[in-house]
Design goal:
Elements: H1 6-32, H2 35-43, H3 47-56, H4 59-89, H5 93-121, H6 123-140, H7 142-158, H8 172-180, H9 188-199, E1 210-211, E2 218-219, H10 224-233, E3 238-242, E4 249-254, H11 255-259, H12 269-273, E5 281-282, H13 288-298, E6 302-306, E7 312-317, H14 318-326, E8 349-353, H15 358-365, H16 377-385, E9 394-397, E10 400-408, E11 411-418
Parallel strand pairs: 2-3, 5-6
Antiparallel strand pairs: 1-7, 3-4, 6-7, 8-11, 9-10, 10-11
Helix pairs in contact: 1-4, 1-5, 1-6, 2-3, 3-6, 4-5, 4-7, 8-9
């Protein structure tokens, strides 16, 4: 080394520190890189993204390459620094120790910590910039990597340690968390729709149905004039049709088809019966996402929900499910349960109908009513009190004070909610 100029020795030391920093930075960047973004770029023709994915599919060999390069660079840098110090100071032990300590500090700061911080801060940019070079280095160092991999595998076999495959798939909850944390990358409305889609598999059709008491149905047992009047003033395009008792649904009437009959003078119930399509019945525990698929497969838009005894519980339409995903976009029918969106007033109070759905109240008012039992605030109070209460009875449920304002017949009509913490 006496024939090598001092400046060349320092240059070689700087190069070794740079190589160590390079391997530390690229390792951190590749491990922190977003694989979904890399796949997107690779599909658009990015060779660097394809190379980065190729490396990440061979994580064991990639880590072997990085560790071999980093270890060799650090070891050579330490040895070279010791040799330089020996040539400068001779055998003075204190100065040799100080020199080795200074080089170790340089390696820690400039070849390990700083590069890893940079790699973690800009993972995709660095991964794309270095992936092609790393792939070429891996090809050149394949024999050495193979030997190291064989030694590690043999050691793990002796220790009875099995290397499990890394599952890069995302669970539904993980994907939901990614959407929640997307921030400004996804507009708020789009983010809301995506989150609603995740909820579809958790809710059943009886969570979004129109309950039996609010179904607009056509009774063929009525006089023809009443039928004519109902059809000219009805709100919906499709009506369930029954005779006498609503549990005896015989079909679905498309109102547009029936409008041509209204001009006829000799009109009878049988004329409407000829226009009926077969009713479509489903159980109340059908999950909403499955029902959306059933609507598509069966080319239906309306389903009657019946319980185990064949009693009609309500109905659900394709519009109900779409509104569950994108929010309400249709004009509510007169007297419908979801007429106006409730909200807290200045005093932290809110008046809601007893038929209001607990899921809607939880969403709109940021409450935490239980959803594994009754579906409405009326049902929740009746289950809790085990009785039909009088007006002005108050209870506390899920941290919210509920005051009964009006009770009529067998149901609670209006309640006042007091915001938790008030």
């Amino acid at each position: 080394m006496d024939a090598v100029p001092l400046w060349a020795q320092f240059a070689a030391l700087a190069i070794l520190i740079f190589l160590s920093a390079f391997f530390a930075m690229t390792e951190t960047a590749l491990m922190a890189a977003n694989r979904h973004r890399l796949r997107h770029l690779a599909r658009r023709g990015s060779r660097s993204a394809a190379a980065a994915l190729w490396l990440l599919e061979r994580t064991d060999r990639l880590l072997s390459l990085v560790l071999i390069g980093s270890t060799l660079a650090n070891a050579l840098a330490t040895a070279l620094a010791t040799l330089i110090a020996f040539n400068l100071f001779g055998g003075q032990e204190i100065k040799l120790v100080i020199t080795v300590a200074a080089v170790s500090l340089l390696l820690i700061v400039f070849a390990q910590i700083s590069p890893k911080v940079v790699g973690a801060a800009h993972p995709e940019r660095i991964a794309l910039a270095t992936s092609l070079l790393l792939r070429a280095l891996m090809t050149l160092a394949q024999p050495l990597i193979w030997v190291m991999h064989l030694l590690v595998t043999s050691l793990m076999w002796l220790l009875r340690i099995r290397a499990g495959d890394v599952d890069a798939r995302l669970s539904t909850e993980e994907l939901r968390m990614m959407v929640l944390e997307s921030g400004s990358f996804i507009p708020g409305k789009h983010r809301s729709i995506l989150l609603n889609l995740f909820e579809l598999e958790k809710i059943a059709v009886d969570d979004v149905m129109t309950p039996r008491a609010h179904i607009e149905a056509l009774n063929l047992a009525m006089p023809v004039e009443e039928i004519r009047h109902q059809l000219t003033t009805c709100y919906h395009n499709q009506l369930p049709v029954h005779e006498g008792e609503i549990n005896d649904i015989i079909g679905i009437l498309h109102v547009r088809k029936a409008m041509a009959l209204l001009a006829e003078e000799d009109l009878a119930a049988e004329d409407f019966r000829a226009l009926l399509s077969a009713p479509y019945f489903i159980p109340p525990d059908t999950d909403v996402f499955a029902q959306l698929q059933y609507f598509q497969e069966n080319h239906e838009r309306l389903a009657i929900i019946v319980d185990e005894y064949g009693e009609v519980q309500g109905l659900v339409t394709l519009d109900d499910i779409i509104e569950e995903m994108v929010g309400e976009f249709t004009t509510p029918a007169p007297g419908a349960a979801r007429a106006d969106a409730p909200g807290w007033d200045a005093n932290g109070e809110c008046l809601v109908e007893g038929s209001a759905l607990l899921r809607d109240l939880n969403k709109r008012l940021a409450l935490d009513f239980p959803l594994d039992g009754p579906k409405t605030i009326n049902g929740l109070l009746l289950e809790y009190l085990q009785d039909i209460p009088e007006a002005h009875v108050s209870v506390r449920l899920a941290g919210c004070v509920i005051e009964i304002i009006q009770a009529q017949n067998q149901a609670i009509k209006v309640v006042k909610l007091i915001r938790p913490g008030k």
